[in-house]
Every structure is written in C-alpha cells, then in structure tokens.
Design brief:
mainly alpha; Arc Repressor Mutant, subunit A; 11% strand; two-stranded antiparallel ribbon
Length: 127
Amino acid sequence: MEKENKRDSGHSFEDYFKRATSPMMTLLLLNEKPMYVYNLSQELEKRSNSTYKMNFLYPVLYKLQQQGYVEEYSQEITESHRTRNYYAITEEGKLYLDYLLKKYRELLEAIDTVINESIGSKQKETE
C-alpha cells in the first residue's frame, strides 16, 4: 500500500501534478469538441480509468477564459428554455495547447532520462 506524504506542504504529489496539468488536460478535451463542466469532468475521469479526477474545473476554465484560450456560450437544452453553459477552445487556445504539449513532452523526457540514469547508476553500484 502506498503511503501518501503530505507532511512538508499539505499537498500530495498528485495534487501538484494535477494543478500543473489541468489547463492542458482541459484544453485537450475542448480541442475535440465544446463541452460543459460535468461532461469535461466525466470524460477526463473515464479516459484516465478514474485516476485523473478534477473536482475544481471552474477556476481552471475561468483562468483559461481570462487568458483568451476558452470561450463560454449558453445553449438551450429543453423546450422549457433550460440552458447549459458550454466551453470551447479558441484559436489562441489551440496554439497554447500545442505549446503546453511540447513543453510537457520535453519535461517528461528530461525526467525519464534523469530517473533512468539514476536507476542505472544504482544498479551498477550494487554489482
């Protein structure tokens, strides 16, 4: 069983990771089609086999909206004029998503290199 260590910061590694990647994940899904918040949350959870859950999507969406990467619109969903707010990626958002994906892949590759070299050097020490 994994032990979660929150002693130093009050947050887990997973919390920090999600906070750092949530704009990218949100834009990635919106790049496929406009979605409403519940739909975004469910899709992310489904595709990650319930590993990546974002309970606080509104702050992420508001920030992306302020930056011009996402736009919001309302759509009537019933004959009684009930509406739902949808979010869609903008052209600027698509460019920003490309940038985020490039940076994510660069960082992931660098981290993997450091990990593999560290594991390799430890294995050599034990031989």
